[in-house]
Amino acid sequence: MKHKPLLSWADCAPRLVAVAAGRVAADLVIRGGTLVNVQSREVLPGWQVAVAEGRFAYVGPDASHCIGPQTDVVDATGQFLIPGLCDGHMHIESGMLTPAEFAAAVIPHGTTTMFTDPHEIANVLGLRGVRMMHDEALLQPINIFT
User: What is the spatial distance between Cα 110 and Cα 82, in angstroms, rounded to a whole number?
Assistant: First the structure.
């Protein structure tokens, strides 16, 4: 999957508002899944999500007003919709993996962000190794903070 850079909030906010209001079609609508609201601890069957510019534009019980002829619609029946998971402490190199290999392994399971401690690569290669890990992390379709 090819990822394009996200627009700044100022650049995409007008389109997100227009999608949420039903004036402009979303890029993607996910229907039929069960939404897990980690803030309220609610489990909401049948809720839908509309996405535009790679960001959430609408989350609610019916996103049909966000669908246009070019909108990709995904049926998530039997699936859970959850926010991306965050690994708060990780040593990528302990698993003998590069940031790219680790990202490929965890993204399918919902991890979208990780905070890494590259002390092992620092012990072996010093600052050069930390920079190598950092530079490769920047190229991944996941948030890796080193």
Answer: 8
